[in-house]
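Form 12-C: Joint structure prediction
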Amino acid sequence: MAATDIARQVGEGCRTVPLAGHVGFDSLPDQLVNKSVSQGFCFNILCVGETGLGKSTLMDTLFNTKFEGEPATHTQPGVQLRSNTYDLQESNVGLKLTIVSTVGFGDQINKEDSYKPIVEFIDAQFEAYLQEELKIRRVLHIYHDSRIHACLYFIAPTGHSLKSLDLVTMKKLDSKVNIIPIIAKSDAISKSELTKFKIKITSELVSNGVQIYQFPTDDELVAEINGTMNAHLPFAVIGSTEELKIGNKMMKARQYPWGTVQVENEAHCDFVKLREMLIRINMEDLREQTHSRHYELYRRCKLEEMGFKDTDPDSKPFSLQETYEAKRNEFLGELQKKEEEMRQMFVQRVKEKEAELKEAEKELHEKFDRLKKLHQDEKKKLEDKKKSLDDEMNAFKQRKTAAELLQSQGSQAGGAQTLKRDKEKKN
Amino acid sequence: MSKGLPETRTDAAMSELVPEPRPKPAVPMKPVSINPNLLGYIGIDTIIEQMRKKTMKTGFDFNIMVVGQSGLGKSTLVNTLFKSQVSRKASSWNREEKIPKTVEIKAIGHVIEEGGVKMKLTVIDTPGFGDQINNENCWEPIEKYINEQYEKFLKEEVNIARKKRIPDTRVHCCLYFISPTGHSLRPLDLEFMKHLSKVVNIIPVIAKADTMTLEEKSEFKQRVRKELEVNGIEFYPQKEFDEDLEDKTENDKIRQESMPFAVVGSDKEYQVNGKRVLGRKTPWGIIEVENLNHCEFALLRDFVIRTHLQDLKEVTHNIHYETYRAKRLNDNGGLPPGEGLLGTVLPPVPATPCPTAE
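Section 2 - Result
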């Protein structure tokens, strides 16, 4: 596919030039790989299935560790998703593994909306990536990619056919994520029932148009093995973290009264095939498909939804710039309108408040005036009183002085008389 | 203006970069990094093989630009680097073709294959640079060309239905040829490098180094290094993009001792000591191009092709291109960085080259 890219470019006027010696750019893949190794990889798995089908146990078995988490109960009111991230290291490769499990899937009485939280979760991861990609200052090369790369759909081992819940959910998910259906707890089915079950499932998926993930067959190295594996889908798996001694080796197995089921025995179950396909051969392809197919589809739909187009109805190429301009002007116009409204409201409020305050001020003034008048009246009264009092006092004083004068006159007259008598005497 | 490359990539840093969970009905918990014990082989390291196979299939693009006055041996050097006739020498031009009046940009693409790895190599030649009497602003056409490639890539990336693999015509590496005067850098050299070191990875090379003796060479290199430092010119590998201690020590060594590489180019082979080597024959001896005692061509080749090829592409993509993109999307004035797409505009491409970042 991309080898043809180079070929096409050759056709476009590039000539292939022979090399006269060893140049050394064949180390380029190594340089690239070294860079990626130092950065670390990330891989995100979504496990969808009813409660009790062994999702957590299978994850534990696949990655040879005990991931934390308690088993879910059957009494969840709705479907929820539980996500955990782990850092795994093997030789010098670091993997950031995120495992998302559904909790409460298939437990409700009304399961019409069961698929919705899952679809929303997947979309939310795409949205987060899209937002990061659309940022002005972005750091995509160190962005933690949380998009789901593989969805393991756990089918209950009824032995008959797919449940309608399964069909509906898978149909909703097939255009958003790489679906790998697996038959869980397959030690409950015998070999012959298993073949019939697998055929039934595949035919039901095909007839309902569900697109499950096909392992790629274009690279000659892995085409053969991928081709045979494609025929074995869905894988019938058994998970177990208990180790039992079988022969002289410790193996992961489940002990029953009638025998022991070995997890890694290809004759017992398809666990080894699943591990090969999921991790050891196609991990990179899963990541690539998620990015180039599912994410691009989401991005295209989202951008079209937002109103951006590549070409307008007259099939003249619309420059993204014009669309942006238009949208932006619209947006700015709205903003301006809102601003105006707010301003109006503000002015209104201010006016009202002002009027109120004026009223209050007027009242206060009136009160003040009244009080003043009262004061003045009082004052006047008091002054009148004072005046009358003063008049009285003056009158009193006058009488007093008059009386004194009379008295003094009297005494003077008496004195004058004495003086006169003295004078007469003298004379 | 920060270029945003982190110093280390610890797990803590990675979990900090997880975006805030948006209000959605099923809210998954914020990822916690736990380190479980591994009890057996899982096969995670096979992803290296998977990745390698994938990259071999897709092939690589590499665009290298050579800038320098005519006659400095640019085309010869590129031919020697890639051991094939990828560049047409000016001396083989038609006699009637004069030196161009302005700087022209000539990009020629070739496909070369080695060891199963296919590479589309594009050599961008700049005839006419520094050849006029008045060389003012002769870097402008070059800067314009580089920005045009970024613009092309940006337009593709911003498309709604976009190609699976966007054709990459961005200039990954610019070899700037310094004339071996033995004294110091010319003003033209300084001006060019000052302007362009912000938009593209510049690797300065001292051309025609067979005109200098060993002492003259080392003195000249020291002077050039000093002058570049004094003028604040960051050539590749830039100090600020060293990611970890290992890179830093390795790159420091290159920056302080080897660069700028003093090279001699040749596409003729001669017999020396029973071996056929590329070299230049002079009356006083044969200068072997790949002999480290004679010139530093081998160092340049190893540096550009064998160890830092991928890094050149990455720095161009993650830093120079992102800087250009941020500038373009910001140019409608006043939007704070980090704003989402709603409300941003791609303004029309400016007629003059974008002002280089401060």
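Section 3 - Comments
Confidence is low (pLDDT under 50) at residues 1-32, 333-358 of chain B. Residues 54-264+294-329 of chain B form a domain with the Rossmann fold fold (CATH 3.40.50.300).
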